[in-house]
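From the pipeline queue, job 12 of 40. The input is one protein chain; the requested action is below.

Action: predict structure.
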Amino acid sequence: MDSPEKITDAIRVARMYYYHNMTTEAIAHELNLSRSSISRLLSYAKIKGLVDIHIIDPYEHPQLLERKIVDEYKIKRAHVVPVSDRLGEAEWLERLAQYSANYLNTLFSSNMILGIAWGTTNTAIARHLLPKITYNSQIVQLNGAGNTETMGIEYASEIIMRFAQNFQAKAHLFPVPAFFDKAATKKALWEEGSIKRLLDLQSRADLLLYSIGAVNAGIPSHVYIGGYLKDSDIRELEEGKIVGDIATVFFREGGDYNGIPLNERASGPNLKLFQTKPGICVVSGLAKVKGLNAALRGKLMTELIVDEPTARKLVENYIPP
């Protein structure tokens, strides 16, 4: 059992060594102990967590990570939000959501249309929104949320309404299933006047706000845990080597999304929308790195907001030194 005296001695030695830059020989002389005793006390202090050593790598500084991401993927801007690895992914997401909510206020204003894809990330952003009065602004839902097992429509509409109320904007909900049973049903419904009006509004959006879904994320994407996908759908995604989705529309490792059968039944917009419209993609979590790289390769965003550990993993895995 560790004695209070040993802990006190270890802290004293650690302070002399790390705070005062004294050598082990000088500490041993001052405390009338052997150098080996000093070394053992320093080791003990590390093992017991009395000393916390951080290595600051200048090449991992958020601004350098931002520069590497922008240079590699040729996007307009990358925002790397500083956060400690040790805090865990739930805290990463909260920090990221707070930053994103603040940043959104600098971009969204009167006479604008904001397209939002519902999901775990935008739910977190909605909690951190800062009230801002806008005029003649509109919030439009980008993908349907209905499914046969849960009240997905209520989940999505709550997110959209929070954004609309925050900006005093008009809300446009998209009351259709996230995935249709048959592609023909979707095709027929897309010819209805009320749906055409919403699709047109989506196409005229001035700004898009969305994230990337991943099957095995630390904080799971809602589409994968909310009863939206059948087992056969999951197998189809695995066989098709799908790495992620945006607004329930799936894409492969290279960022391409054509020829994926499930996309024919998805209510989300053609991903060309994200290639041509100003969009902020907010991503948090190491499991999303593969999908993030694919989305960046596919030019599916103009701006990225990402937490520092996830950005570092992206750079380590996909950007040559």
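Job complete. The beta strands are 77-81, 113-116, 138-141, 170-172, 207-210, 242-246, 249-252, 279-283, 303-307.
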